[in-house]
Amino acid sequence: SDSFAAYIEKHDELITDGYDNLFIEDLDGALGLTTSEGDDLLVVDIPNNLLIIGVKGSGYQGKMALVKQPRQVVMAKASSLGSFGQEIDAFCNNNDAILGINASGFVDPKGESFGAQVKGCLVIDGMDYGSHHEEPAWKFVGVKKNDERMYVTYYTPGMQEEYRWGMEFYPGLIIDGESVVDGTYGMGIQPRTTIGQAKDGTMLLLIVDGRQTHSLGCTVADCAEIMLRYGAYQGMNLDGGSSSVMYYRGKFITKPSSVTGRGRYMPNAILVKAAADVDI
Asked: Which residue from 67, 74, 71, 73 is spatially nearest to 147, judged by alpha carbons?
């Protein structure tokens, strides 16, 4: 964007060694940097192929991470899955991740669950640690081992063997570049977590705050529109509500609506690894 180009021109010391080592962190938006789409540009981490932007619309605010290398995006399960879940900071710390978001839904009687039992498939390196959820609205989303492409599809027995990671939830948002949701999809205005992928492989991880004065939340159609703005070719809604959270380099950079302000205990998470820790 023009604002970014102007900032670099004034601070050319940032690119003394070229753009490959460029790192700017401005989580409060104090520098006034924007993307070409007009959203706040909060993190530019070229060594880790990562951008973080601030998004906002009518009644909502959130953040989206864009990861240029899909192999850096992984799925992790709780270390005591089946007995106890983990909070997002534990997922990041235990897996040396630089960023993390929540992922699957979980069995939650009376809203007092500790995220022990995942709902739907939970695939990591071809192994399913969950179980197929048969409601027709639920879809499977995952990244295949052979081409690093993300697919939004229906689960069929044995397909998990083709995937590096995957999970089930609902609804699908974007399929082959077209939004497949309209309005609220009967799900209302809520905190949201979604994931998408552009044709060039860039992964989009979106969190929208909700149930708070600074942000009421948004619809699933709003999420699809945000991701389409940044080139999403496939997109999927993940578990939302008080679970929605983004954690980055030791900080909660979104504001979960949970009582603790830290999100929930969860069975799994989607993480972004440092480029140096991944075979790219």
From this structure: 71
Residues 6 or more apart in contact with residue 24 via CB below 8 angstroms: 14, 31, 33, 43, 44
Kindly write down the DSSP assignment for every residue of 162-220, as one continuous string: GEEEEEEES-EEEETTEE---TTTTS-SB-EEEEEEETTS-EEEEEE--SSSS---B-H
Cβ contacts of residue 178 below 8 Å, gap of 6+? none
CA-nearest of 175, 147, 160 to 236 is 175
The reply to whether the predicted model has a pTM over 0.90 is yes
User: In the block, which residue shows the tokens 């990591």?
Assistant: 124
Residues 85-133 have pLDDT tens digits of 999 999 999 999 999 999 999 999 988 889 999 999 999 999 999 999 9
* DSSP-assigned letters across all residues of 82-121: TT--B-HHHHHHHTTEEEEEE---B--GGG---S-SBSS-
183: confidence class by pLDDT, cuts 50, 70, 90: confident
Q: Characterize 117-156 residue by residue with b for buried, 16 or more Cβ atoms within 10 angstroms of its Cβ, and e for exposed.
A: bbbbbbbbeeebbbeebeeeebbbbbbeeeeeebbbeebe
How far does the chain reach from its first CA to its final CA, in angstroms?
A: 28
Q: Is 245 exposed, middle or buried (0-12, 13-18, 19+ CB in 10 A)?
A: buried
- Could you give the C-alpha distances from 2 to 6, 21, 34, 79, in angstroms and in order? 6, 21, 8, 45
